[in-house]
Amino acid sequence: DNPAYEQPLVQAQHSAAGPARMALFERAERALGARMPYIPLYFYTADSLVKPWVRGWYPNLMDLHPARYITILQHTEH
């Protein structure tokens, strides 16, 4: 029961193909979209290169890494 959606569709059924008919379909689509929930179709990523001797660094959603939790083990780099 959405007259703002159904009315342009009925008009479009009785209209000839062309810009006016497409405008009716666009109006119906906007009315339908206004009542629909939005689902995000993307997500954030963060890539990091961390040496094996680094401890306390863990990936997280906010990509925040406080230095007080990170330690560097004694190592020799080749």
UniProtKB/TrEMBL annotation:
SUPFAM superfamilies, per the entry: Periplasmic binding protein-like II
Gene3D superfamilies: Dipeptide-binding Protein, Domain 3, Periplasmic binding protein-like II
Protein name: Periplasmic murein peptide-binding protein MppA
